[in-house]
Design goal:
This protein is an alpha/beta fold. The protein has helices at 17-25, 51-58, 72-81, 97-100, 123-129, 165-188, 221-230, 298-303; strands spanning 6-11, 29-34, 39-41, 46-48, 63-64, 85-89, 106-111, 134-141, 151-158, 237-241, 244-255, 266-270, 273-277, 282-289, 296-297. Helix content is 25%, strand content 27%. The strands form three sheets. It has a seven-stranded mixed β-sheet. α1 links the parallel β1 and β2. The termini are far apart.
């Protein structure tokens, strides 16, 4: 039986943690875990370790946190490791050619979409917001271009009609770990394919900007619901009532038929939530988070806001 590969692991967010854990559980030699430096977070702006750093500490692994991965010191340190395979998952920095070429066998990336669709930083958000019925993870060889490398393996999974980005993210993280184990086995056996992407079919998913979180009520009911679940749990869809910014956390399509009411108009309030008209159909808002408060049932929010009633408009 051949020896397991010596692995250089690079990752930062929760998405990368199952892959790191799977490498350890399958007794791969993890030469080093590279993750982003601790960053200020929360109201106190205390330094916070990445999810990957916390997992690596639990596993007793050596950790390296360079501010810039392309610095000569960082490149020299990685080259000295002489890994067989570099595994990259949600690391957060663009890798220079000098780092891509560190590993003897391959530099692999775990990407949260079925490439070439949704290249970029937020593939899961965009897939859910677009109302996709299916997504997956792609294991690919990395090159200097963003998510354009040749494909080794794709694992697919359906997206449920009410699933949030958070729920899909957690499932894809586990699927990515499974795909990584299969990919490493194919590499060990010399059977790993190398399938070029169809660049003409590529779509992109750049980082979500604040203005993208605003709900457009002139869209269809399905588009509104998909945006709300696609931005849950972060950065969260928003709307405005009078001068109050409201975060919208959960909604379902109430009615898909057109009517004569204005987009954004509150049609009805019940214990089930708030029915709001859209450009085509209406949605039932189930959960809301008012400014400075915790998330709550939409109906509970209305109890403390007597002016919030049918006929009012959200903007």
């Amino acid at each position: 039986m051949s020896q397991p590969f010596r692995i250089l692991f690079m990752g930062t967010s929760d998405f990368a943690v199952p892959a790191l854990q799977a490498l350890r559980q399958n007794q791969y030699e993890i030469a080093l875990v590279v993750t982003q430096p601790d960053r200020p977070a929360g109201r106190g702006l205390e330094l916070k370790a990445s999810a990957v750093k916390k997992a690596a500490l639990d596993l007793g692994l050596e950790i390296y946190q360079p501010e810039k991965i392309k610095s000569p010191e960082a490149v020299e340190k990685l080259q000295a490791l002489k890994p067989d395979v570099t595994v990259v998952a949600a690391y957060g920095q663009i890798l220079p050619l000098s780092v891509l070429q560190v590993a003897k066998t391959a530099c692999l990336n775990i990407h949260g979409s079925i490439l070439p669709k949704y290249r970029g930083a937020a593939p899961i958000h965009y897939a859910v917001m677009a109302g996709e019925k299916e997504t997956g993870v792609t294991l690919m060889y990395m090159n200097e271009k963003m998510d354009e490398g040749d494909i080794l393996l794709i694992k697919k999974t359906p997206i449920g009609p009410q699933e949030t980005t958070g729920e899909v993210h957690d499932r894809l993280a586990v699927l990515g770990a499974q795909g990584l184990m299969e990919t490493l086995e194919l590499l060990k056996q010399g059977k790993a394919p190398r399938l070029p992407q169809n660049h003409l079919a590529a779509t992109y998913s750049p980082s979500i900007k604040r203005e993208q979180c605003k709900v457009r009520w002139d869209g269809t009911a399905s588009q509104v619901v998909n945006k709300i679940r696609g931005l849950n749990p972060w950065p969260v869809a928003e709307t405005q009532w009078k001068e109050m910014d409201l975060k919208l956390l959960s909604a379902v399509v109430q009615n898909a038929a057109p009517n004569e009411n204005k987009p954004g108009e509150i049609l009805m309030i019940s214990k089930d939530g708030i029915v709001v008209n859209t450009g085509l159909g209406s949605v039932l808002i189930q959960e809301i988070q008012p400014p400075g408060k915790k998330r709550m049932k939409a109906y509970d929010f209305t109890l403390g806001q007597p002016a919030f009633k049918p006929g009012e408009c959200l903007s």
